[in-house]
Amino acid sequence: MASRTVIELDSVRKSFGSGTVAVEGLSLSVREHEVLALVGPSGCGKSTTLRMVNRLVEPTSGRILLDGEDVTTTDPVALRRRIGYVIQNVGLFPHRTVEANIATVPGLLGWDRRRTRARVAELLDLVGLPAATYAKRYPHELSGGERQRIGVARALATDPPVLLMDEPFGAVDPEFRRHLQTEFQRIQQETGTTVILVTHDIDEAARLGDRIAVLSRGGRLEQVASPLAVLAHPASERVRDFIGDGAASRMLSLARVQSADLDGADRIVQPAPAPVRLGARLTDAFEAVAALPASAMGRVPVVGESGDVVGSLTADGILGALRRAADAAAQEPANGVPGDADGAAGSGGAGATSATGATADADDAAVTDAAS
Ligand SMILES: Nc1ncnc2c1ncn2[C@@H]1O[C@H](COP(=O)(O)OP(=O)(O)OP(=O)(O)O)[C@@H](O)[C@H]1O
Fold this sequence. Notes:
- By secondary structure, the chain is an alpha/beta fold.
- It has 2 domains: 261 residues, P-loop containing nucleotide triphosphate hydrolases (Rossmann fold), CATH 3.40.50.300; 75 residues, Alpha-Beta Complex (CBS domain Like), CATH 3.90.1280.
- The chain has 15 helices and 13 strands.
- α2 crosses α15 and α12 packs across α13.
- The longest helix has 18 residues.
- The structure holds adenosine-5'-triphosphate.
- Adenosine-5'-triphosphate binds next to α1.
């Protein structure tokens, strides 16, 4: 199960010239192919953390390793070609077509036209915007959501093993946001890219993250664990505050109906109500039970993959499933970080060795540097 660590932050600290300590003693590992959601209240150091990984911001002290290599000694331009970067309001080049935007880095890496064109078509397909319709458009001819998807396509152009995403769905309305999240999930599963996703939205983090790292002010790591573990067993009062109300309902959408939660099929009252599937989200099962007519006696049939009825489920069964999920989450290793035995707060306290400050207009630099 233990997968390779791709990104490792080791006692990373960042203080700005103004005296603000944005990140303090942060230690965190990101595993290959995982989506690590970085969450926390506004100003807690999420973006600064992300930008230190691709050297848009230089750490004051501590080490950041990419595939075991210290990023601070890696040429930033080469580094950014290995790391895709997606930000809110993506910053597409306004006078270049969609095709030219996506082809920016391949072009500068000297790919020939045929290869570039094929890759652009493939990426447009991947993000659900057919090349025939979209390749020749300019950014101003796209909706906000479409621009966002082109931003993702551009970041993936040279198939970087790592993708950093800073509030990538922040600028779109809630309904379309959900659609983009689903699409992102599909793309990530297809490509296997390792992702750090910054969001202030715990629901987005729970939905998309394989693990969630919760930061508090000053970039302090409060907890890093699976979404279920964070929701069911917040490691501190700050995590609890950040999650706010509704942890149980969020857990319902993460946990699934399993055989262990079922009673016998013989207890189903006829005529049988519409069934739920084994493996369905508890939210869906809960809605099905809540919508039952009185005659069903609170019991919904459950069907297996073949459509055969395999048992029945009640509200008690759903509660049991929720407890089981919470118990299983409690069995996770503390903080879920391989080799990070001492847990939440990281080691901290490393002395400042240099203070190089942030790159001016860093987000643009990420794109133009990667392209230069
Ligand atoms: N270039 C900078 N110079 C001085 N202070 C900075 C700079 N960049 C960030 N900070 C400060 O560092 C702290 C962390 O900022 P950061 O943008 O990383 O937080 P965040 O968690 O991403 O916030 P948000 O969710 O609001 O985007 C804040 O107090 C911010 O004001």
